[in-house]
Amino acid sequence: MNGSATRRLRINPTLCEGYGYCAELVPELITLDDWGFPIVSSRQIEDENVLNLARRAVATCPRLALILEETATTET
Amino acid sequence: MAVVASPVGTRLLGGLPTSGCGHESIEDHEHRIGARPTGTEQLIEVLEQSGLRGRGGAWFSTARKWSAVARSAQGNAVIVVNASEGEPLSAKDQELMSRRPHLVLDGAAIAAEALGATDVVVYTSRRNAAQRVLDRALKERGRARVPDPPIGVVRTAHRYIAGESSAVINRVSGGQSKPKFSLYRAADRGVDDRPTLVQNAETFAHVAMIARYGSEWFRKLGTRESPGTALITLCGNVRNPGVYEIEIGAPLTAVLDAVGGVVTPAAGVLIGGYFGTWLPASELANIRLDPDSLRKRGAAFGCGVIAMLPRDGCAIVEATRVLSYLAAESAGQCGPCVNGLNALADAMERIAMSTAERDDIDHVRRWIDMVRDRGACHHPDGAVGMLASALKGFDEHLTSHLAGRRCSGLEANGFPPPPAPGDRWR
User: Per the CB < 8 Å rule, is A35 touching B339?
Assistant: First the structure.
């Protein structure tokens, strides 16, 4: 048995107002579109540094629109 | 494959007097096909064997949808009959609810019993002509003592996306009929955070038939992957626009021939409604009306709208009109939808008028990719998918527009223009 966790960013687009702080903090996962709204990669976060930046981006969002999904799954 | 066109004997709409004669009463309904069977958990297995797929547009397996609700329900589930039909070109649910409301209500009550739901809600648009029929049908069932669970009615403003699953849940829970972002599925947390089945009205009608006649009977028509019949709304450049019941898998040309054909040789077709796909004239002869073969052509059956483009019509022009309508119908909640669809509509309007700026088409292609999958609902995805199919299938027209040649399609009649956008959200 080895435990593996899902860790990925998601955004609630109905809350986001395009402040753009997140894209500055985690350019690895977030870029801005032509109107300054974030395009968030939903790929699995492997790198611990990127994970920490993602956590900061979540905490920094003035609209609380960014979500870090962490599901601990156990595979056999 | 045979085309079954109303009023020839069919499953959902067959045997009705021709138009203008109101709905089938509960007495006539029960006399014709018998009293409503009781819904049991075993019905999910029957639905699985029947291969029934949802008729709201996604064609998702009904059995799987029910199973998901059954898994999380603990006698507190909610059944929602989605009869809002916000799609301007679609009339099938309104037709069904106005003529055979008891078939739909049977299906909903059966679902409630099978899934242990305590509430059934019929969700309908205030502009829907079937509203009064619905009230009468519910009274008839009460008088006839049909042993139904409580069936309520929730009305909504007539907006394009008011029928989107999360918008339905939002409205039925007492909010606005706008989509809502959620990390959960409706089957787990829907209306008032209860397990919820949101399903198209036509799907419930098929359930009512399958519960009576079984899965083998259901599979006698249609394809292996998509058995049964489906309601379509035929409109645009056709002699007899209206709602018809077809066997799934029927060739488009056979359906057209059976109901009187086109007015002028068609220049193309929009299949699946405003979130659907434009296909050019060259493809028409090979189109089969089933979700799987349409998907192979990059198209979708969606809600069954077949809108024929007249000979002198232009898909670039019509797609632009639809896009502008969809941009205005955005709930205005998500940046990519608001900014993206409006920017796309502006650029496409210049292209349609043959007054495009140099970068317009490059921007359009860039923004089509940019807005995909970024809304709380699939409104932007549906809109750009429709637009992309027009650009792809009608590239000669597009080239002509970009070259600044005025398009005669701007003045063409015969393709239904979008309505004025709605103004309320409840």
Answer: yes
Taken in order B41, B44, B50, B54, the sign of the CA dihedral is: positive
Distance CA B279, CA B57 (A): 18
CA of A68: which chain B residue's CA is closest? Answer: B183
Predicted ipTM of the assembly: 0.91
Interface A-B: count of C-beta contacts within 8 A: 48
| Alpha-carbon distance values, B22 to B94, B97, B99, B240, B272 (Å) | 12, 10, 6, 20, 28
Is the Cβ–Cβ distance between B162 and B168 less than 8 Å?
Answer: yes
Region class of B155: left (phi > 0), else alpha (psi between -120 and 50), else beta:
beta
Give kind and range of the element (H or E) at residue B65: helix B62-72
Does pLDDT of A74 surpass 90? Answer: no
A63 Cβ under 8 Å from any chain B Cβ: no
B53 to chain A, closest Cα gap in Å: 29
Across the interface, whether the CB atoms of B335 and A13 are under 8 A apart is answered yes
Closest CA to B282 of B262, B268, B297, B264: B268
Angle at CA of residue B352, ends B377 and A39, nearest 5°: 30
Find the distance separating the first CA and the last CA of chain A, reported in whole Å: 5
pLDDT at res. B424: 87
